[in-house]
Amino acid sequence: MDYTERSYRSRFSDDGRRWFCVKFLESDLWIGVDSGSYSDHMEADAYSMLVDLRRKMDAYLLMDPQFKAALTPYDASPQAPDILKEMSSVSHKTGIGPMSAVAGAVALRVADFLKERFGTKEVIVENGGDIYAQAASDMDISVFAGQSPLSEKVGLHIPVAAFPCGICTSSGTVGPSLSLGRADAVMIVCRDVMLADSYATAMANRIRSAEDLQPVIDSISDIPDILGAIAVKDDRMAVTGRFELRLFR
Q: Which residues make Cβ contacts (< 8 Å) with residue 30, sequence separation at least 6?
């Protein structure tokens, strides 16, 4: 499956929601909303909101390049946009740089905008494999793990009571994002999508071989903010948390 073309998104196409894509610079969002709240203006408004958000973020990053480069917790200045301050706060919980939460942070902001502007009851925003989800029914989420034979064959069942939540995946072998490890995939579920995004990166950083899977999963079990996790390396995986494992054909 071609990650660059994001063909994994085809799995969402027949779930009864209205789906559309919004892109600006590196942000490439696949957005689903309940059909009852969809509006002809929604795509254009979401695009305008994303452009404004990214321009404010990028303007600050030009003035404070260390924020973008930091691999350890880093505080944004008081003049920074609120989204960057929130990412800084997350970095202190997860122990890595604040940019590890950027995809989840953008997804959350766009979802909140759609809920406020259009009164959406359901909204799912996928941003490069990181998902903010507020759904009205259970969801089965498979793990995309590149060349691993387990890619899209395993995943988690997320019951409706868990929403809203963040379902985020990091990889050392798939995609352009920085990872210090070699995990094929680490998927983390948290109530806070920014925490899920940053923890996924933090845990993937620690996996360089299949022997690292269980120690990392054991450490995840001790973090109350993490509701569930699945980690994949080569033909092996490890799972923890409150959600049922799902197998896909």
A: 6, 9, 12, 19, 20, 21, 125, 126, 127
pLDDT in the model for residue 178: 55
CA 83 to chain centre: 15
Note whether 101 and 90 are within 8 A (CB). yes
pLDDT at 47: 98
Q: Within 13 A of 39's CA, how many CA atoms are on the CB side?
A: 12
> Residue 163's pLDDT is what?
98
3-state secondary structure of 179: coil
Across the chain, which has 249 residues, the per-10-residue mean pLDDT values are: 49 76 95 95 97 98 97 97 98 97 98 97 95 96 94 96 97 67 93 98 95 96 96 97 94
Q: What are the angstrom distances between the C-alpha of 89 and each of 33, 170, 244?
A: 29, 20, 30
CA dihedral 178, 190, 19, 86 (to 10 degrees): -60
What are the b/e assignments for 106-127, b being 16+ CB within 10 Å?
Answer: bbbbbbebbbeebebebbbbbb
Closest Cα to residue 131, out of 182, 194, 178, 186? Answer: 194
Plot region of 12 (φ>0 → left; ψ -120 to 50 → alpha; else → beta): alpha
The candidate with the shortest Cα–Cα distance to 220, out of 203, 195, 206, 198, is 203
pLDDT at 15: 74
Structural tokens at position 148: 């691993």
Determine the pLDDT at residue 3: 46
Number of C-beta neighbours around residue 9 at 10 A: 14
**Amino acid in position 126:** E
User: Which pLDDT value is given to residue 57?
Assistant: 98
